[in-house]
């Protein structure tokens, strides 16, 4: 049975049989190791346990696009997108393997030293290292240039002080990519990215697993750095002050990730809603048979189809190195807003059941809300798009 209710042809750049075989193997992994009842258990624990990450590593799902010379699978963004689609279409939103594979790993691949790549990337592939990216602070979210966490060079070390908030994988991660000021007197030019291997440092502390309104599968935390000494070679890139530029170059892929995930989340919401309205009856007929339902579903299927074609186009642009910040921002803003609207309308068709936490549509509705906020809010996306006008 197809997990997508859309009838969009597989784009040309993904027609090679390799990709359908890969999608099939990801699906088999998820169906075997993350069936709905297990996922519910993980949601109650508010975290995907480490052994699942390690299993994902053993089954070749971590480090998909890390080059083979560093122990990775030598794939590209197509593999990352397929992984996110298979997760999203099953309603497993919140397991942030995409952040590990598609955000943190590329920083190392693109900017890391040879020593960092050889030492760290194989551990990201096996699951020995689970990663997180730490930009946001209690006093600085959208305005990342105002971060206050500092990493001050002292001989052969950097000394890290400050705190980060809302960090995805924050309870699990033992590899942190931290945005910090190596020159606190500067704004963007003072920012560097540094790697913190938490098993090997003192002065690092995790706050509680934060109590969120959705995305229960993700552990999200505040992190504290109190005179944490890290080796000087854990600076990302050769020189200090490159962090802001590295972030700006990497954000298009992070934003595309959200668009890919939201597209899959829309497919999930539509599929389970269509199944429901075909079963549930009122006034002697199926909910589907009311013209209001047909028209709404027709509108949503149209919107979702347009969205899918746009996201496929963005993926193609990205694999050819042409996805710019404007288009990535459009994709992130528009898909996250669209998912919010569609999942809210889908929930309406479930009546009172749609407000019960045990229903997948309810969870999808809760999970959707934050996507308009994280990885750059809708307002910030519009600012970036407006710059191109
Ligand atoms: C579940 C979750 C997971 C997250 N995961 C991570 C993570 O892994 N790593 C990480 O670093 N961060 C993470 N974040 C943080 C997230 O990226 C920030 O919350 C987001 O960037 C917004 O920052 P803020 O919360 O400080 O809001 P603020 O920046 O304070 O914004 C508040 C409001 O003001 C608006 N606003 C701000 N500036 C402007 C402007 N110039 N023009 C118009 N409106 C503006 C915003 O759009 C927003 O509506 C996560 C957040 C959540 C909730």
CATH second-level architecture of the largest domain: Up-down Bundle
Radius of gyration: 21 Å
- Identify the CATH homologous superfamily of the largest domain: Butyryl-CoA Dehydrogenase, subunit A, domain 3
Could you name the CATH topology of the largest domain? Butyryl-CoA Dehydrogenase, subunit A, domain 3
What is the rounded distance between the termini?
A: 44 Å
Low-confidence stretches: none
Structure summary, number of beta strands: 9
Tell me the helix content. Answer: 40-55%
The CATH class assignment of the largest domain is: Mainly Alpha
Identify every distinct bound molecule in the structure, by name, code or SMILES: flavin-adenine dinucleotide
Tell me the β content: 5-15%
Keywords for this entry:
single chain; 389 residues; alpha+beta; Butyryl-Coa Dehydrogenase, subunit A, domain 1; Butyryl-CoA Dehydrogenase, subunit A, domain 2; Butyryl-CoA Dehydrogenase, subunit A, domain 3; 4-stranded antiparallel sheet; 3-stranded mixed sheet; 11 helices; 15% strand; binds flavin-adenine dinucleotide
Task: Give your account of this protein's structure.
The mean pLDDT is 97. The chain is of the alpha+beta class and 389 residues long. The termini are far apart. Helices cover 48% and strands 15% of the residues. Helix 1 crosses helix 4 and helix 8 packs antiparallel against helix 9. It folds into three domains: 115 residues, Acyl-CoA dehydrogenase/oxidase, N-terminal domain (Butyryl-Coa Dehydrogenase, subunit A, domain 1); 111 residues, Butyryl-CoA Dehydrogenase, subunit A, domain 2; 142 residues, Butyryl-CoA Dehydrogenase, subunit A, domain 3 (Up-down Bundle). A hairpin with a 2-residue loop joins strand 2 and strand 3. Strands 2-3-7-6 form a four-stranded antiparallel sheet, with no helix packed on it. A three-stranded mixed sheet has the order 1-4-5, covered by helices on one side. It is built from eleven helices and nine strands. The chain binds flavin-adenine dinucleotide. Flavin-adenine dinucleotide binds next to strand 1, strand 3 and helix 11.
């Amino acid at each position: 049975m197809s997990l997508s209710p859309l009838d969009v042809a597989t784009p040309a750049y993904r027609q090679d049989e390799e990709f359908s075989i890969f999608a099939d193997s990801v699906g088999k992994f998820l169906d075997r190791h993350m069936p709905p009842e297990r996922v519910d258990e993980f949601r109650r624990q508010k975290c995907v346990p480490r052994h699942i990450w390690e299993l994902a590593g053993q089954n070749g799902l971590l480090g998909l696009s890390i080059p083979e010379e560093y122990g990775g699978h030598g794939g590209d963004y197509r593999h990352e997108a397929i992984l996110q689609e298979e997760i999203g279409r099953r309603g497993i939103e919140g397991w942030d393997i995409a952040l590990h594979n598609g955000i943190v790993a590329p920083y190392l691949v693109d900017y890391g030293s040879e020593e960092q790549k050889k030492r760290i990337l194989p551990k990201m592939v096996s699951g020995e290292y689970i990663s997180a990216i730490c930009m946001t602070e209690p006093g600085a979210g959208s305005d990342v240039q105002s971060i206050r966490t500092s990493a001050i060079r002292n001989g052969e070390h950097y000394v890290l002080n400050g705190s980060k908030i809302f960090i995805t994988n924050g309870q699990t991660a033992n590899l942190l990519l931290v945005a910090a000021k190596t020159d606190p007197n500067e704004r963007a030019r003072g920012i560097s990215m540094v790697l913190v291997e938490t098993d090997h440092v003192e002065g690092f502390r995790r706050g509680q697993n934060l109590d969120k309104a959705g995305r229960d599968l993700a552990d999200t935390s505040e992190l504290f750095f109190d005179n944490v000494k890290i080796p000087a070679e854990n600076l990302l890139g050769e020189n200090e002050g490159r962090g802001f530029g590295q972030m700006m170059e990497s954000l298009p892929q992070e934003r595309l990730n959200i668009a890919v995930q939201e597209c899959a989340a829309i497919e999930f919401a539509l599929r389970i809603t269509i199944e429901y309205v075909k079963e549930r009856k009122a006034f002697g007929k199926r909910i589907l048979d009311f013209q209001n339902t047909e028209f709404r579903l027709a509108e949503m299927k149209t919107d979702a189809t347009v969205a899918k074609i746009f996201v496929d186009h963005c993926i193609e642009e990205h694999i050819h190195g042409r996805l710019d910040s404007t288009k990535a921002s459009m994709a992130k803003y528009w898909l996250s807003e669209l998912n919010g609207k569609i999942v809210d309308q889908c929930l309406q068709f479930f009546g009172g059941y749609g407000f019960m936490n045990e229903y997948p549509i309810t969870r999808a509705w809760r999970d959707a809300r934050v996507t308009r906020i994280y990885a750059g809010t809708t307002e910030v996306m519009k600012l970036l798009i407006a710059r191109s006008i």
